[in-house]
Every structure is written in structure tokens, then in C-alpha cells.
Design goal:
The complex is a heterodimer of chains A (about 200) and B (about 270). With about 200 residues, chain A is mainly α. Chain A is about 75% helix and about 0% strand. Chain A is globular and about 60 Å long. The two termini of chain A are about 15 Å apart. In chain A, about 35% of the residues are buried. Chain B has about 270 residues and is α+β, with helices and mostly antiparallel strands. In chain B, strands 1-4 form a two-stranded antiparallel ribbon. Classes of the chains: A mainly alpha (about 200), B alpha+beta (about 270).
Chain lengths: ~200, ~270
Amino acid sequence: MVKLISVLMAAVLVNNYVLRQFLGICPFLGVSKDLKSATGMSIAVIFVMCLATAVTWCIHMYLLVPRGMEYLQTVVFILVIAALVQLVEIALKKNIPALYRALGVYLPLITTNCAVLGVTIANLDRGYGFAESMVNALGSGLGFFLAMVIFSGVRYRTETSEPPKPFEGLPLTLISASILSLSFFGFNGIVENLFGG
Amino acid sequence: MSAILIPVGAVSGIGLLCAVMLTVVSKVMAVQVDERITAVRDVLPGANCGACGYAGCDGYAAALIEDGVKTNLCVPGSDDVSLQISNLLGVEFEDVIERIAVCHCGGTTSATQRKMEYGGVISCAAAKLLYGGEMSCRYGCIGYGDCARVCPNGAVCIEDGVARINPRRCTGCGLCAKVCPNGIISTLPDTVTTVIKCSSIDRGGDVRKKCQRGCIGCMRCVRECPNEAIAVVNNLAVIDYDKCGGCGHCAEVCTVKCVKIANFTGVFNKTE
């Protein structure tokens, strides 16, 4: 149990996918303009990450490893994740049209979101079991959610401020993203100290 | 052999499984979509650029049908797409306001003089470094065609020593405006009908000596404009396009004929 909590904490804070490993930057900059769509996008990412991890972990362990085909990992995972996202999109369109409209073009972007692929591959690289993989996926998703929510708050302030002309728009956004990323380096080592590594 | 066949079979199998699953789900969970939305969506360029203010072309197509928004919001699609949508929906055609590049210099070779012979690299940026170019006016068109070389549509040519922009070919990308070392090209909405063809901020007398077509800041257009849309700033007439009614009276009264009347709008002017 302690191990699972430490995996969760590490995934949310220390190894935050957006701010520490720089994966999934596209939606981080694209959808963080307002809190509502940032939340929607993050929930979609959490959902897809967990689903993708569950499916890819099983495929890896029960199909690729027994036949010695681990080298197919990347290709198969991309294929499966793309199909899953399409599935989620169809289901959303049918059941929650409001969220579907809010996500707009960003939902198909999850198809090729490197954070999702990164989580599924990192799970296997670190030799996580199924439970740990699922917790790690949930934690990574929550970390994405945290980064999105914090950054949409920052964006709200920067959009309404009057920066010097050369900083207007994207430059200011990128600079604030880098400062946010730096601040997350403050979480270095807390998991090791709290849970004894 | 099996070292190739098994992986290929495995990946194809997974792909097939996903395809079957998606097909079944898309049939089971099919949502009724207004067929007009699909039709409008097919007309739109599909670039998902967001220039219309909606989340992608799908969003704009839905807004066109459900909220009845204007048909002229798709700038990349231009007049052509607007016309097709209006035909589809049976509403009145509305002209898309595209951007168009305009050169603010009328100093042709007959109107202005050279102050030296330039023999260096054929480039405005290079010529500008040498005493501001060889023409007597250092604000005007240098005439070595940096803008013409950068234009992706072949819309700019140098004629009589001045850049001329073909509005039928111009897509308003603004590359020429960025490259011009004197900054005399600007992109304006294509609804603009009057353009000041001068960029000199010298005093009237000095302009007169260098160029017959230069704005001398005589204030005549300012006084005569019925909408008070023109002001002289830094010895140069400037049109406020929010106020300009497009009557063209300024072009008639201008003493040096540096105000030009133009018509950039028109269906299909971007689709040739």
C-alpha cells in the first residue's frame, strides 16, 4: 500500500509529465486558456491514460513478451491508443455532447499525445506490476490535471495583463510555463524522504 | 520466416480487431447529425485554424446551421467558400474581408530622382545600408524587389521602380510587409477604398524637391474630407479607416495625387 501511495505521489508531483518530463505540451499550451476546457481535457486525459495502461499492459505481458516481440511495443501501443481515443470520442459524442463540444478538436489530439504513450511505456520500463501501472497512470493523469488547472489560472492572469509588446501572447505563456516547471523542481526528493525510497 | 510473419500477423490482428470494434461502436452509438452540417463541413477548407472564432471547421459548420452566424467568417476559404455556403444554405452572399498588401509609395522613376548609382548586391536590404538606397527619397520604395522574391504567389512585381501588388493574386500573408526594409508595405482589409501612396515624413518642401508624388502635408484632404477621416501626422496624411466612407473625394483634391482610389473586394478575386 505504501508502495502504491509513493508511486502516486511520485507520478503527480515529482515526475509530473508536463512540467518535469515535458510530454503533452501541446494540450498544455492549447487548452489551458480557460479553466473549464482545461478541466474537461484533463479528465479526458486521465480516463484515456488509465484505459490505455490497462489495455497496453495486458497486451505487453500476455502477447508481446511470451513471443519475444517487445520491439513492437511502440507501434502496437500507438495503434491501440489511437483506437481507444476514437472509441472515447464516439462514446462522448453520444453520451456527453456538452463535454464533446467543449473539447472540440483537442480530443483527437490525445490520439497522438506523447504523455499517454509515455505513461504506458514508462510503466513497463520501470517494471511496474498491473496495480502499480494503474496507479501510476492515474497519478500521471492527476499530475496533468494539476498542471493544467494551475496553468489555466496563470494564463487567466497573463491574458488580462499588459506585458511589454515583445512578450505579448505566446512568449509570455512559454516563460510562465518555464517558471511553473522550475517551481515543480522543488518537489525533488520528497517521495524518497517521506516513504524511504 | 515465422520471425516476420508472427509480428506482422499480430499487429494486423490488433489493427483489425480495433477496426471492427470501432465500426461496431460507431454504428451502435451513431448520433443523428443534420446533413446540412456535413455538407457545409465538406465545403470548408478543413484547416481547423480557428480564424472564424469556433473550435475548428466542425464547430463553425455547426454554428452556421444552428445559430445562423454569418457565412463570411472563414478567411482562408475566402469569397469562394462564402459563396458556396450561401448557395447551400440559401442565404445572401456576404463578402469575406480578406487582408491585402498595399505598397505606400508612388515614387516612380519619372516622379523621383536618383542621388547615386548603386552597383552592389541586388537587394533592397543591402541597398538600404548604403545611405538609405539610391533613390533621392529615403522613405520610399528602393525597387530591388525583396518583396517580389519573397511573395509565394507571384503577386508583387517592380514596375517603374516601385513595387506593385496584384490584388487578384495577393492572399494577404504579409511576407512582403515583413521583408521590406523601409516598412512601406502594409496589409489592410480588402474593404479599403483609398490608400495614401507615400511614406515620407520629411517636411513638405523637402519632399517636393525629391519626389513629385510625395505627400507634402498640405492639409487639403484633411479639410475636405466629409468624414474627418484623414489626419496629417509627421507631415504625412494618414487615413482612419474606421471613419473613412470611401467617397474618394480626397483622391480628387490631393495636390500631388498621392491618394489612390482602389477596389480590392470582389467575388473570386482570390481563387484564380
